[in-house]
Amino acid sequence: MSYCPMCSRWDADSDLRIIELPHSYVIFNRDQYFPGYTLLFVKEHATELFHLDLNVRTALMEELSFVAQALYATYRPDKINYELLGNMVPHIHWHIVPRFSTDSLWPRPIWAESHEELHLSPDEYRQRIEAIRSALL
Amino acid sequence: MSYCPMCSRWDADSDLRIIELPHSYVIFNRDQYFPGYTLLFVKEHATELFHLDLNVRTALMEELSFVAQALYATYRPDKINYELLGNMVPHIHWHIVPRFSTDSLWPRPIWAESHEELHLSPDEYRQRIEAIRSALL
Q: Could you give the ipTM of this predicted complex?
């Protein structure tokens, strides 16, 4: 297997960790242009849903739903967007993005226009991550 | 509940039907600019994964994986993209899109640039749908 940046993402983005779940790691996206943008990636290196064992796939989807619910409770968006793409990094990772009717691209997908990345201060990352963690309990 | 176009989509796009599954309807997307683009939508009117009962959510994700595998077998893409957005039509529907390293937007998401819709002849739709159905059996 060639180098996979997702296999080492949990270590590489240790300041963005939200929670480790049985089958996935969940991190806050560094670019917070879309507030609450979160990534969930499966622990094993797999690239398509149908490559996973049934029990892993089922658990992964519950973990996705669990995290989306916490984001919903924290941000109260108009919709959650769930996207599993992987054209650049095929290791299964979900983009979970709260969307608001007031955001600049609404109702289009987040990819419809490029934007400058919005990075936060270390304190702001910590506060927002803590708020999501509280909603996961 | 206000009018929902997804609740009537199975009837409206009856020429694009691929298969009815226990918890979802699966139709071929009319725009085939991305070959194999398929939609899977849940039978009940629900808008977020975490609003579904656990057994429905689990079954729905299996149906999604089942259809993706058939698209993979039919088209042999480089990657499948799975997207649940719903900003315009919130009724849960999955965009399942085979992606190829040769397609015009690769490796970007399909939404990165707009395109003219590509419609097929009735015979072409039937042939492509039949090929997917064969892979589902």
A: 0.96
